[in-house]
Task: inverse folding
């Protein structure tokens, strides 16, 4: 048996929509990334980034690590760092939920809250790297981010749908999930449609961003995404609540956003098999307005 916590990253369940999808000719599946040990899809990228940096000799147990994060990547990095006895500082927007901050601290990470959102957190981390000798994984430009999904998420979806998936839907933050999964699925069948989810203007949805050009993740390649659809904060909130009440899936707001788009796509199709990413678990949002 000799399985470690790291061996439990990935191979997450793919479950069929029981209620929300009302098109009888379309199957909608949710990939439950909250079943990763750290509670989100970011476990995959965090492990791949840390393990490869260690293997390349870029970091050691003496390294001062820092990363800007909106939440889930930070939790995942804190968990993996604890396993390898690494010291890490995580910088988040000060609007982050209490559960996220406490979870990172529980794993032993130092948490810094920044008043200027994720962009301010990114600038803060870059300054520490350039002036104080810190090492940042920089998930926004780290090839090991998207390659984690090329190695794991994409193949899992292909195998679990017996190669019949027609549409893949993912909210876009760092864009690692959609880049890696798209790269793999398009190699298998270029006709598979890859649909990204962004917030509407002035909508703030944790985990989904419409980046200003100067902050656009370097790993993002627009040619790998067939369509980008937008969701409002209110749509994402309402769908997160419906996921819990109608499907028994407790998930965060970004998953509500992705599900909103998945249902739009389902209504467009005469037939198809849609896979939508459920990014994380909803219990890390219980102190927020999400489920009030």
Result:
């Amino acid at each position: 048996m000799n399985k470690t916590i790291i061996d439990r990253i990935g191979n997450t369940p793919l479950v069929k929509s029981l209620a929300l999808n009302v098109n009888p000719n379309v199957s909608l599946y949710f990939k439950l990334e909250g079943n990763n040990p750290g509670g989100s899809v970011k476990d995959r990228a965090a492990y791949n980034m840390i393990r490869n940096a260690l293997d390349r000799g870029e970091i050691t147990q003496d390294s001062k690590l820092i990363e800007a994060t909106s939440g889930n990547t930070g939790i995942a990095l804190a968990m993996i760092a604890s396993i390898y006895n690494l010291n890490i500082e995580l910088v988040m927007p000060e609007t982050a939920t209490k559960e996220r901050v406490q979870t990172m601290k529980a794993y032993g990470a130092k948490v810094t809250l920044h008043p200027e959102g994720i962009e301010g957190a990114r600038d803060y981390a870059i300054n520490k790297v350039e002036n104080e000798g810190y090492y940042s994984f920089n998930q926004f430009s780290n090839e090991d981010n998207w390659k984690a999904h090329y190695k794991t998420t994409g193949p899992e979806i292909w195998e679990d749908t017996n190669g019949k998936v027609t549409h893949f839907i993912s909210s876009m933050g760092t864009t690692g999930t959609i880049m890696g999964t798209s790269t793999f699925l398009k190699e298998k069948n270029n006709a598979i449609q890859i649909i990204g989810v962004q917030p509407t203007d002035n909508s703030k949805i944790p985990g989904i961003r419409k980046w200003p050009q100067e902050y656009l993740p370097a790993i993002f390649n627009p040619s790998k995404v067939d369509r980008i659809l937008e969701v409002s904060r209110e749509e994402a909130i309402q769908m997160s609540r419906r996921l819990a009440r109608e499907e028994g899936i407790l998930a965060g707001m970004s998953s509500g956003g992705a599900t909103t788009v998945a249902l739009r796509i389902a209504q467009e199709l005469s037939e198809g098999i849609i896979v939508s990413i459920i990014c994380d678990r909803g219990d890390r949002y219980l102190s927020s307005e999400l489920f009030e």
Notes: The radius of gyration is 18 Å. The chain has a mean pLDDT of 96.
